[in-house]
Every structure is written in C-alpha cells, then in structure tokens.
Amino acid sequence: MKKRIYRNMLVLVLITVLITSFLITAVIFCEFYLRMQEEIRNEALFISTGYNLTGQRIFSELEGEENSSRITWIASDGMVLFDNMAEAKNMENHLDRPEIADALEYGFGEAVHYSETLGTQTFYRAVRLNDGTVLRVSTTTDSVFKSVLGIIPYIALITLPVMLLTMVIANLLTKKIIFPLNNLNLENPLSNNVYDELSPLLSRMAKQKDQIKSQFEKLKEKQEEFNAITGNIREGIIVLNNNGKILFINKSAAGIFNVNAQDMINRHIITLNRSMAFRKAVETAMGGHLFEDTFKIGENYFNLLVSPVKDDTAVKGVILFILDVTEKQSAEKMRREFTANVSHELKTPLTSILGYAELMKSGMARPEDIAGFSGRIYSEAKRLLYLIDDVIRISRLDEKNVNLPFEEIDLFELAAETAGRLEGPALKKRIKLSVTGEKAVISGVRQILEDMIYNLCDNAIKYNYESGTVDVSVKALPDSVVVTVADSGYGIPREHQNRVFERFYRIDKSHSRETGGTGLGLSIVKHGAEFHNARINLISEPEKGTTITITFKCSR
After folding, report:
1. In terms of DSSP H, where are the helices of 446-534?
2. Which structural domains are found in the chain, ordered by start?
3. Does 297 have pLDDT greater than 70?
4. DSSP 313
5. Judging by beta carbons within 10 Å of its beta carbon (0-12, 13-18, 19+), is residue 365 exposed, middle or buried?
6. Among 104, 146, 165, 273, which lies 20 to 30 A Cα-Cα from 195?
7. What pTM value is reported for the model?
8. At what angle do helices 446-462 and 521-531 cross, to 10 degrees?
C-alpha cells in the first residue's frame, strides 16, 4: 500500500506538471495570438489612415524600414503595386486571395494560413483604401504545436527538480498517511482516532469482531462440552479423515492403546494398531459400510464398531468406537463355567441318591443296609439343599436382588453369635475357636454379614489340622471396621490364592468333598463384601495357615 501511494503521488505530480505546462503554454500562445491579431489590425488601420491622408508617399517611407510585418499594396484588379519584402512585379495576382476578396467586397478581410511543413501560421489583415486599392498587413509566427515543442526542454528542466522535491515530500506524506493505519488498534477498532473516511470500515470491523468473538466463544463452549463428554466416557472414540489420518482421539482410546493422544494427531490409524481386524475395519468403513468386530490387547477384549461419515457422494471420514468388553467376556466365561459346575455339582449328589433309591426300590438292598442307605440319601439330599441355597444367595448378590433392609449391626456381637454356632464342629476336631475385639457398628444386611462370617469360620475349621486354632477379631478404627479370621490350617499355595474366591473352585477336590463343602463359601464372602463396598485381603502360607481380612467402611 505504501509503495502504491508513493507511486501514485509521483505519477499525479508528473501528470500535473505536464498538463499545467501545456495549459500555461496554450494560454500564453492564445494571449500572444490575440495580441498579434490586435497589433496587425491596428497597424493596418494606421497605415490605411496614413495612405488616405498622404497618398502613396507613405509606402516610399515604409520601404527600407525594418518591420516585422509584411505590407502589401494591391490594386483593385489584384495586381501587387507594393511589397516591403519582395519585388512587386514578380508577385502573382492576389485577386483570388480570400482576405483581398473580402476587403474589396466588405471593406476589410482576414485570413490565417498554416504551414505544416514549417510549422508556422500567418495572419492576414486586408483593408480597402479610399481609392479602391487594398492594403494588406501580415505577420508570421510559430504554430501552437511548434511552440509547445519549443518549451519541452524547459518543461523537462522544471520537471526534474519538481520530481525530486515531490519524491521527498511524497515519501514523508506516505509515511504520515500510513503510520496511523499501521498502528490501528484492531482489538478495539472504534478507539482509533484516524481518518473520518475509515470510520465506516472501523465500525464494520468492530461489529465483525464482536460476531467472530461470539461465534468463537460458542465454538469454544461446544469444543469444551465435546472434550468433557468424550474425555470422561469409558468408551474409546477415534475420528479419521478420508485418508485414514487421526483427527481426534479421546483419553480412553489413548489409554487402551497406551499412547499419548496429542502425539497421534495427523498420524495414520495403522500406526496405532496393525492388527488385521483394525485394517479390515478401516478399509470397510472407507468403502462406506459399517463394521463390527472384537480384538484383543494383552488380556483385555475390545469390541470395535466402525462407522463411515459420508455425504451423498463420498466418504468424508470414519468414526471408531472401542468398548472394553473384558468384564463381559469374563462374566460370560464365568457363567458358562458356573453352569457347568452347577450341573456337575447337582449331578453328583443326585446320582448318589438315585443309586441308593434304585437299590432300595428293586429290593436288592438287604434289610440291615436300608438304614445306611437312607442315611446316605439324607446326607446327599441335605448337601444338595445347601448347594441350592448357596447358588441362590450368590445369584441374588450378583443381581443386587436382596430384599432385606440395611440396619445398624455390631460386628463383634454378630461374630460372637456366629462362632457360637460352630462350636460343635470345632470341638469335634479339638480346634480352639476364639472371638476377640470391641464393639464395632456398621450399616449392613444382617443375613449377608452372618453368612460371610459363618463361611470364613466354617472354612477355617474344615481346612484345619486337629487341635488347631481359629481366631476371629473385630477392630474398630476411626473410619473403618476390620474383621479378621485367622487359622493354623493347611494354607493356600500361592498359585491358587487369586482363584479361591471363584465359584466351585477347589484346591483339593477330593478333600473338599470329604468335608462336605460346596465350593461356594468364599465366593459368597466375596460377593457379600462387594455388596457392602468392603475390601478383602488374603494372606496364606502352606502348612502355616490362612488369614482373611475384610475392611468395612464405618457408618459413624
């Protein structure tokens, strides 16, 4: 802009100088032309008046006199009688000259003759004298074009210093004009105290700035909302352009693939995961079709749903939804195992019952064996009933379908009551069962808490040595209550410690059947703890015993 203003100012000054020079030249020429005409007319008047007074003697006086005008005396028939610049006898007849014809007819005549060859113009003034002859006075001067050409060198000499001065002034003026424009406060356009001509532009800029600011704030709010939503959901979300490059990846997706979200922007999706499922998913979506599959990363399973983003003609991008289905897969696996285990556990006592019943029905059993068979049928039926009750308890805890009220419960009192119910089995194995601690109240479901403590104590007795010990302690802490059941029994090998809380899991299946366990005791404890938002900790060493600790949040 600065160069354009500077250049335009120079061009304007140059054109102004040239036009002014030509106009002044034209004005001066016109003034000179008019004055020349006036002088010729006056000169013709003076000479004609002198001739009329003194006769042709005046021509003899003019002959030999230096004069810028040419004086010619012409007879009424056109013959030249006198000329101060040429021999009259050698001159042609002038009767056909327009100024002579007008003078003879009207008393005076004028004419201008141009010479393109010489670039001159001649003005003629003819006056009819009293005796009928004609006096003609003429003068020659340069034409206006020749006059203009003549002053061009002078114009050039004038233009050079004018242009130098103009360059200096134009530079200063340009800087002065541009300075306020270069220092406009675009943050607050209306605060600029500049040219009045810029006020409409600055007003529009201020209005547009407010609109842009408002739109930007709305976009920022939407972006923050989008980031808040996508950043906190568990599902992974990845957005690709039509070239397969990552435009957006949320925190969950970055966590799934163990990458930094910002580092993956504008990188190809294949750099994130090179599995065949991923490649096929992206290729299918780029073709405009939905795709769904499951893939595995480490020990975790993920469901991949890929959807194309397209208009009427082409695919503009791809959105990938990644859902962690590890728990679902694990739950499905556990359900299958649970079904198989329940079927197996139910089938064993039922087979035994059916076998003894069939012997009794067919009469093959001796009378003295019927009492033993009946006792075994009763024992297996009782074990079957315990198994069904345990399965129902776990199912209800799984589904949170416990229609029992929460109440304030003293765990120390509850532990003492529960341990009292197991004194018989403990005495049978000469196991010392003790309960120590203090009053500790929490909010919970009594039946579930009782089942938890009962199963822990029952297992501690069943899987203990003769003359062993089982210690139950209840401790009240400022923000929690800790229940601990420690025994001096067989202990649990390290490789089994992570699985003992699974349903029907047994370390020694033959020994478990001898003790009459269903394999669901510790699973009931685990589900009961989850129901009460409690934590379970297991410490065990083979041949030295097991300690299980349950930490409840305090209700106080």
Report:
1. 446-462, 509-515, 521-531
2. 2-149 (3.30.450.20), 233-324 (3.30.450.20), 329-398 (1.10.287.130), 407-553 (3.30.565.10)
3. yes
4. S
5. middle
6. 165
7. 0.41
8. 150
pLDDT value, residue 198? 67
Sheet containing strand 545-553, strands side by side = 432-437, 469-476, 480-487, 545-553, 535-541
Q: Would strands 432-437 and 120-128 be described as parallel, antiparallel, or unpaired?
A: unpaired
3-state helix, strand, coil in the chain (%, to 5): 55, 20, 25
Stated length of the chain: 556
Q: How far apart are CA 148 and CA 211, in angstroms?
A: 61
Q: Is 485 exposed, middle or buried (0-12, 13-18, 19+ CB in 10 A)?
A: buried
Angle ∠(526,473,498) on CA atoms, nearest 5: 30
Both structure tokens of 172: 């200063």
Residue 235 per-residue DSSP state = S
Residue with tokens 């993920």: 302
Distance separating alpha carbons of residues 121 and 111, to the nearest angstrom = 10
Torsion of CA 26, 27, 33, 39, to 10 degrees: -160
| Secondary structure E strands in 276-357 | 291-297, 300-310, 315-324
User: What does the DSSP assignment read for 214-226?
Assistant: HHHHHHHHHHHHH
Predicted pLDDT of residue 118 = 57
Element (H, E) at 5: helix 2-54
Determine how many CB atoms are found less than 10 A away from the CB of residue 282. Answer: 21
β-strands 236-241, 246-249 pairing: antiparallel
Residue tagged 């997706």 (tokens): 253
**Burial class (CB within 10 angstroms; exposed 0-12, middle 13-18, buried 19+) of 105:** exposed
Spatial separation of the C-alpha atoms in residues 416 and 412, rounded to whole Å: 6
> 27: which residues sit within 8 A by CB, 6+ positions away?
none
